[in-house]
Write a structure and sequence with these properties.
heterodimer; A: 343 residues; alpha/beta; Rossmann fold; 5-stranded parallel beta sheet; B: 177 residues; 3-stranded antiparallel beta sheet; 8 strands; 24% helix; globular
Chain lengths: 343, 177
């Protein structure tokens, strides 16, 4: 599977501006615009009738090659709240099992009149490949270890709103110190999250065992969670992904919890106003051993709610706002290919 | 929703000055009070983005003459009929100040042109409830309607050609193009 070239544009007519595939490719301007659109969508979601006609007659197709509950349902709900029609392509019942290639499947679905594909795949780069085969917009809902841009956008929006309290949402994360704890190496959530947080001016520290830090990693790293605990504004816990762990990287999960987990002792020492975040689903007893409901400032449920608004913003920007055509942008996906080789 | 743009190439003609705009707003406020015989259940809602300042101005004039009424704003960009055909940049998030069920809503925009923005705003409004009456106040009616929509309160009737740009603000009304 080939990744994007250094310009971020693939070889077909469709430019990066008509897709949402990674935070780096979106660039700061579109990230900020999407966060502003999210404010509007969140207002729609607060109404008694949370539905607008914006994407009537458009069709959004979810293709999930990897298990997902919340992301798939979140995209589906987002599309419906914009009045788009939705299709879900379940890989288990598909002709892919009869040997149909991914490309043929995409071309078949596109011929039915799909305006946007929402794709999750275990291999990095699949959304870029798909956008070469179709004129439809492509939204990356997670590709391998690479990127998960809508998760990063919802994390940024949730954190900004939480830090702003009742005043209008702050426009950036300047001066905010965020610790991301866990399996950074195998996490697309971490990769996209760090890119977005840093793009908005936050100071990010990765907290993980050396074996779980990717090579060529430019973000500051520490193995000592307790030292930085008093200095941080937000604590982002990653899921320990047992299905991606092929032994040896973490010798013992209970040792991991002792060094990197959010335990009752750490909660005691942590500042009360630290915002606690988690992309879900949580491994209770591994990365978190306290009940998040008892934390003073956990926004884990709010992340899920914001997810719908963010995905509405992304679908509306791609299919409805005309912005994709109006503002073609050249952005760079620096180091994607070298990164993939290393991994 | 139609961002007024100044054309550098063409001469700009001032049609109303700041005092004229202020006087027109005062008169419209009087008309709103007169028409609604007092102000029970009245809500003034400006259409994002151009109608918001005028809604606030009308709200403060009504408050000066009679008493305070709720003033809010509505963003109609998700209800437009030209979605996907042109770039959309929503203004601020809708802020509906009170329950619109059974209320008398005065929708406010700076310029009434094709009527499509007002149509979108009416649809948006109906998602918040069922007002008893909806009235429309505009500073400038420039004609060229494409939908059966008519204003109840008008600052100034301004015959224009459809290619001209009309720029309305508290500091006056200008035509260019």
């Amino acid at each position: 599977m080939t990744g994007p070239d250094q310009t971020g544009n693939d070889q077909t007519g469709s430019s990066a501006a008509s897709h949402c595939r990674s935070i780096v490719e979106l660039g700061p301007q579109r990230v900020r615009h999407l966060l502003e659109l999210t404010d509007h969508m969140a207002e729609v979601n607060r109404r008694p009738n949370p539905k607008v006609p914006a994407l009537r007659s458009r069709t959004v197709c979810n293709i999930f090659f990897e298990d997902s509950t919340r992301t798939r349902l979140s995209f589906e709900m987002a599309a419906r709240r914009l009045s788009a029609d939705t299709m879900t392509f379940s890989v288990g019942q598909s002709s892919l099992n009869k040997g149909e290639s991914l490309r043929d499947t995409i071309e078949t679905l596109a011929a039915m009149g799909v305006d946007a594909f929402v794709v999750r795949h275990r291999s990095s780069g699949v959304p870029w490949a798909i956008s070469r085969w179709t004129d439809a917009a492509v939204v990356n809902a997670g590709d391998g270890w690479h990127a998960h841009p809508t998760q990063a956008l919802l994390d940024c929006h949730t954190l900004m709103s939480e830090l702003s309290g009742s005043s209008p949402r702050r426009a950036d994360l300047a001066g905010i110190k965020i610790a991301i704890v866990g399996d950074i190496k195998h996490s697309r959530v971490a990769r996209s999250g760090i890119a977005a947080f840093e793009m908005l001016g936050a100071e990010v520290i990765a907290v993980a065992p050396r074996t779980l830090i990717p090579p060529h990693f430019s973000t500051p790293v520490t193995q000592d969670l307790d030292t930085i605990l008093p200095e941080i504004d937000a604590l982002y816990l990653l899921r320990m992904q047992s299905e991606r762990m092929s032994g040896a990287l973490v010798p013992d999960l209970s040792e991991y919890t002792m060094r990197f987990g959010l335990t009752p002792e750490r909660v005691q020492r942590m500042n009360d106003n630290v915002v606690v975040m988690h992309p879900g689903p949580m491994n209770r007893g591994v990365e978190i051993t306290v009940d998040p409901a008892e934390l003073p400032r956990s926004v884990i449920t709010k992340q899920v709610t914001t997810g719908i608004a963010v995905r509405m913003a992304v679908l509306f920007e791609l299919l409805g706002s005309g912005a994709a055509q109006a503002a073609p942008e050249t952005s760079t996906e620096v180091g994607f290919e070298s990164q993939m080789e290393e991994l | 929703m139609r961002p007024p743009r100044k054309e550098e190439m063409n001469p700009t003609k001032q049609v109303l000055g700041p005092d004229d705009v202020q006087r027109a707003a005062t008169r419209m406020a009087h008309e709103i009070i007169e028409r609604n015989r007092g102000l029970d259940d009245l809500v003034v809602i400006g259409i994002q983005t151009g109608g918001v300042w005028l809604a606030e101005l009308l709200g403060s004039e009504i408050a000066r003459i009679q008493h305070r009424v709720p003033v809010g704003s509505i963003d109609a960009s998700l209800y437009r009929d030209d979605i996907g055909l042109r770039p959309v940049s929503p203004g601020a998030v809708s802020a509906i100040p009170s329950d619109v069920n059974g209320a008398v809503v005065v929708l406010v925009d700076d310029v009434l042109f094709t009527g499509r923005t007002v149509r979108a705003a009416l649809d948006a409004l109906s998602d918040y409830g069922r007002p008893r009456v909806v009235q429309l106040a505009v500073m400038v009616d420039r004609g060229h309607r494409e939908l059966p929509i008519r204003p109840d309160y008008i600052g100034k009737n301004l015959p224009t050609s459809s290619t001209e740009t009309v720029l309305v603000s508290a500091s006056g009304v200008e035509i260019s193009g």
